[in-house]
Specification:
The protein is α+β, with helices and mostly antiparallel strands. Helix content is 31%, strand content 20%. The strands form two sheets. A three-stranded antiparallel sheet has the order 1-3-2. The protein has a three-stranded mixed sheet with strand order 5-4-6, with no helix packed on it. The longest helix has 13 residues. It starts with a helix and ends with a helix.
Length: 143
């Protein structure tokens, strides 16, 4: 992987140093427009870094609001690059729908499809909402 301007800008914006692991992982997120598992990321960077280093890098990216965790029906955590219109450094706003394609298995962030407001009884305190829609993605529906 080669560092590009987008990668450098994102690292700078999120106050992260430029390291080879950060550049490699961020390049993967820039190239692939869907959520990726730890194993998929590891495979895409050609196993050049150990699992613990990848995990720590993903954790720091998540803490800085650069990526967010995506849950789908597989039960495996996936990660996706945050839309920078909605996420600022240290202020993560993951109030959008995730779409899981039943044909290709990819999970996409639909940043411009907000999760509707949910009114809970007063005794309940909302901490997080995960909204997963399933169907056929735009790439698979072309076939």
């Amino acid at each position: 992987m080669h560092e590009n301007k987008t990668t450098t800008d994102l690292l700078l914006k999120h106050s992260l140093r430029r390291t080879s692991i950060r550049i490699a992982i961020l390049d993967v997120f820039v190239i692939y427009p869907y959520a990726l598992t730890h194993a998929e990321i590891e495979a895409k960077i050609s196993n050049a870094f150990d699992r613990v280093t990848i995990y720590r890098t993903l954790k720091s990216f998540e803490e800085q609001g650069l990526i967010h965790r995506v849950l789908d029906d597989s039960g495996v955590a996936k990660y996706a690059l945050c839309s920078h219109e909605h996420c600022e450094t240290h202020k993560h706003h993951d109030k959008h729908i995730h779409f899981n394609c039943v044909q290709c298995g990819h999970t996409f962030c639909l940043d411009h499809v907000p999760i509707p407001d949910i009114q809970l009884p007063k005794q309940y305190q909302l901490q997080k909402i995960d909204f997963l829609a399933q169907g056929i993605c735009k790439n698979c529906s072309i076939v």
